[in-house]
Amino acid sequence: MSLSHFRITRFQFARDRVIGDSQVRADETNVAALELISDTGEVGLGFIQTLFYPLPDQAEIEAVFESEVWPTIKGEKAIGLVHRVNRPRGGNQRAYSLPFHEALQVALWDLVAKQAGMPLHRLLGSRRNRVGAYASGLDFHLSDDAFSALFAHAASVGYTAFKIKVGHPDFARDLRRLELLKKVVPEGSQIMIDPNEAWSSKEALVKLTAIRDAGHNLLWVEDPILRHDFEGLQTLRHAVNWTQINSGEYLDLSGKRILLDHHGTDILNVHGQVTDVMRIGWLAAELGVPVSLGNTFLEIGVHMAVALPEVEWLEYSFQNFDHLVETPIEIRDGFAYAPDRLGHGLVLSEEARREWARPHRLERSKLGPAPKNNRLPLLS
Predict the structure, then answer these.
(1) pLDDT tens track for 121-180
(2) What pLDDT was estimated at residue 22?
(3) Which is the most buried residue in 40, 42, 125, 233, by most CB within 10 A?
(4) Cα distances (Å, whole numbers) of residue 117 to 27, 73, 122
(5) DSSP reduced 3-state for 298
(6) 238-265: b or e for each residue (b if 16 or more CB lie within 10 Å)?
(7) Is 377 within 8 Å of 367 (Cβ atoms)?
(8) Does the pLDDT at position 380 exceed 60?
(9) Which sign does the torsion angle of CA 367, 371, 373, 376 carry?
(10) Can you tell me the distance from the alpha carbon of 145 to that of 135, in angstroms, rounded to the nearest whole number?
(11) How many angstroms from the chain centroid is the CA of residue 253?
(12) Quick one: CA torsion of 181, 151, 52, 58, rounded to 10 degrees?
């Protein structure tokens, strides 16, 4: 069951809405499927994604992967790679030229679980098969009407927790969005806000106080200030006792450890790198710090969410990706369900490979209509 060869399929398509936050925006998807194939035919699937600039042509992605990654894993057994520890010294402490890191971890764990004959979440030690999912709009650039329609739809299909983007230069706009949200979701819903580091430490305190005084109860505020301002995050945690600080999204594994060392967050935000998430999740559990799963491509994070202790929430953002796989992760009545299929349970759709593969980079104007989003029909 050694790694025999790999296959990369490049995709590029329009999003069904502009997504973004106080710092960035995007209206197209650039992703490539990475399939690691064993000598016995099992396939491990991961996804390479760039948010703001198109991936190079498929041939270039393959060449970079073959040069930088493949020599270190070819002929190896996936089970011997997922826990491998490298010494981060000198020139070895660097990122790949393309964002292979998460895709590689996900694909290897998919293979390991398949070879063990288990769903990934069971292999990781889960005791349950579902976790609360909150509706996240990535909504900063939407009009007020589109914003209200998105969250009204989320409420209508069973979500009870909602996260909106704030951090606008005009703070009155942030307050208006919270008022709009209150009108379209049920009373008693859990509300989160995410400024995406738009505020300074003192500014965050002033604005969170104003939000509270305006009658808005918040479950958490996510990344209110700069990611490396550990002292500021710690100070804010102690100053704001009416909501929680959720941070760590923008930090790598080492940064998350330093954040925990500085007691800089009430909830640790992690994403889709399976090995990294489990390692930092174990440390968070030792320290009694809850973990939340932010956006993970095609909700692969549900496996880690149900395997780690004290994870109450997984983010879902209604992105039009489901057509890429045969059977997406089930989300129903405000819960995401970890599949009991072998591996992580996602298999690349051959129809998507035929219809949506784009081996060569296209200009935005040539992408055509966005793929249908069955989970957000009002925009499809």
Answers:
(1) 999 999 999 999 999 999 999 999 999 999 999 999 999 999 999 999 999 999 999 999
(2) 96
(3) 233
(4) 39, 22, 10
(5) helix
(6) eebeebbbbbbbebeeeebbebbeeebb
(7) no
(8) no
(9) positive
(10) 17
(11) 15
(12) 170
- Tens of pLDDT along 297-324? 999 999 999 999 989 999 999 999 999 9
Question: What Cα–Cα distance (Å) separates residue 267 from each residue in 174, 289, 342?
Answer: 23, 6, 30
The first and second tokens of residue 350, run together, are: 């051959």
Tokens describing residue 348: 């690349």
Helix ranges restricted to H, 117-229: 120-123, 144-156, 171-184, 201-213
**68 token code pair:** 């930088």
pLDDT at residue 25, rounded to an integer: 96
What are the tokens at 180? 């709009």
Residue 188 has which token pair? Answer: 């008693």
- In the chain, where does DSSP find H-type helix? 58-68, 70-73, 101-116, 120-123, 144-156, 171-184, 201-213, 230-239, 253-261, 274-287, 302-307, 350-356
